[in-house]
């Protein structure tokens, strides 16, 4: 193996190559590109799609890192509302909010709850938009029998610490578009991989250093099958717990079960029925760790408000997101 083979990403025996093959087979996509992080993957997708200084539709109910790379490229967010069952971007809201300047949808499978990928795909096609999914928290989640966000033009995964597949750091972009895959290689991978895989005589020496470290890829390969196997029993445990919590009258019953949705539960975030009742629920379930939900609406965060003051008056456009941000809370088992 040559000195640069671990960064060219194409030689056997190469952990990155093997991990990309695993991802293609398990997720049923034509192409997979491993990257150094989900943020790098989202930046690579924006570069590949030519999204600079463009408007994109997204959810206000997500972690700031979802938007970070796209904002760094000068793109402008517009916020749609979310669905009650999945907490993901509402496809109807996309149709209502898109303008002539809108170029893409950036949806999120927040907390590992799969968004309605079929509806978002239809909305994207009807509106002539790219559909990109941040599925960083949704490894192992399914909806309608398919992996979360499977209908997106590009699906971004994360393998960082705390995720279902924890390799310390790393991520991947999945796509069925050969041309998008080639652009991702061009913008995020080492010139050796560009030339050898794409058949180029010249290469993009100005690509970002976005390849995945082979040590992280080897760790991801070792944990891959076990991580997927763990999702189902963990989900069943949380489903039983949710039913028991709802019987107290303090917590809303689960809604996602009616949508053929199988969350991976990166976080378990039920909703209060009428009002927050932390002490009452802690008394009923003393072995649980119960706390406010870890996500705040993006437009309510100081860093965002300082940069985008013109978006602060749009709360009326996403009333469900506002409501759910007040009702949702986080639960972790004590064991």
Total helical elements: 12
Q: What is the number of E strands?
A: 12
Largest sheet, if any? 7 strands, mixed
| Unreliable sequence segments | none
Helical content stands at 25-40%
What is the H/E string?
HHEHEHEHEHEEEEEHHHEHEHHE
**Roughly how many Å apart are the termini?**
45 Å
**How would you write the strand order of the largest sheet?**
1-9-8-5-4-2-3
What class, by secondary structure content? alpha/beta
Shape: globular
How much is the average pLDDT? 92
Q: Could you tell me the strand content as a percent range?
A: 15-25%
Radius of gyration: 20 Å
Provide an overview of this structure.
The chain has 335 residues and is an alpha/beta fold. 38% of the residues lie in helices and 15% in strands. The chain is built from 12 helices and 12 strands. The strands form 3 sheets. It has a 7-stranded mixed sheet, with helices on both faces. The protein has a 3-stranded antiparallel sheet with strand order 7-6-10, with no helix packed on it. A two-stranded antiparallel sheet has the order 11-12. Strand 6 (142-143) and strand 7 form a beta hairpin. Helix 3 packs parallel to helix 4 (65-72) and helix 3 crosses helix 7 (178-188). The longest helix is centred in the last third of the chain and has 33 residues, at 214-246. The chain is globular. The model has no long low-confidence stretch (mean pLDDT 92).
């Amino acid at each position: 193996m040559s000195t640069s083979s671990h960064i060219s990403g194409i030689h056997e025996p190469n952990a990155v190559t093997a991990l990309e093959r695993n991802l293609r087979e398990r997720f049923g996509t034509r192409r997979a590109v491993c990257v150094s992080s989900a943020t790098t993957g989202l930046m690579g997708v924006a570069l590949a799609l030519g999204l600079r200084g463009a408007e994109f539709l997204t959810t206000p109910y997500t972690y700031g890192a979802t938007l970070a790379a796209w904002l760094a490229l000068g793109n402008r967010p517009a916020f749609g509302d979310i669905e009650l069952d999945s907490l993901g971007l509402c496809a109807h809201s996309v149709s209502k909010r898109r303008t002539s300047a809108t170029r893409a949808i950036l949806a999120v499978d927040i907390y590992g709850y799969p968004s309605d990928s079929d509806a978002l795909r239809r909305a994207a096609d009807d509106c002539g938009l790219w559909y990109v999914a941040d599925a960083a928290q949704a490894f192992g989640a399914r909806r309608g029998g398919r992996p979360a966000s499977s209908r997106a033009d590009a699906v971004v995964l994360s393998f960082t610490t705390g995720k279902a597949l924890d390799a310390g750091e790393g991520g991947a972009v999945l796509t069925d578009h050969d041309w998008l895959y080639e652009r991702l290689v061009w913008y995020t991978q080492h010139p050796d991989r560009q030339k050898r895989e794409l058949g180029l005589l010249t290469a993009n020496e100005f690509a970002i250093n976005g390849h995945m470290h082979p040590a992280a890829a080897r760790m991801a390969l070792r944990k891959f099958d076990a991580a997927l196997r763990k999702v189902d029993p963990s989900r069943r445990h949380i489903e039983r717990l949710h039913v028991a919590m709802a019987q107290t009258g303090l917590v809303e019953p689960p809604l996602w079960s009616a949508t053929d949705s199988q969350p991976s539960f990166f976080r378990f975030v039920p909703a209060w029925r009428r009002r927050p009742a932390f002490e009452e629920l802690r008394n009923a379930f003393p072995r649980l760790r119960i706390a406010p939900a870890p996500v705040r609406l993006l437009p309510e965060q100081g860093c965002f408000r300082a940069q985008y003051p013109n978006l602060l008056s749009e709360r009326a456009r996403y009333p469900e997101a506002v409501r759910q941000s007040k009702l949702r809370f986080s639960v972790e088992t004590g064991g």
